[in-house]
Write a structure and sequence with these properties.
The chain is an all-alpha fold. Helices cover 67% and strands 0% of the residues. It is globular and about 45 Å long.
Amino acid sequence: MNIRFVTKTIHAYLDYPVALGLIALPMALNLGQSNPLAFWLSVVTGVAALILTVLTDHETGVIRVLPYSFHLIVDFAVGVVFLAAPLVLGFKGIDLAYYIVNAIAVLTVVSLHKPDVAEPQIA
């Protein structure tokens, strides 16, 4: 049984709200209480995610110059960084919870990616 159901289209439509959330939620949740980097890592990642989405060759890309496979690799890297950052930077409380939840969400979406028939497989 294959549980991979996150298609390229589904992923494309998730990208903009996720990027905007990464920019806005640190303010709404008052992140940065344990380390100011907890605030800025999310905001900078959100801006980068917005740019990446605009440049990705998928349904919601505006200037489609980056392959979707590259987008997935960047998303995976963000998930790993979000998982490691709290440990490396000593995040506590809401800062810790925010990054762990986001890391799990990003890594789950990437791992549930359903490749298109014509799309090259990513290991």
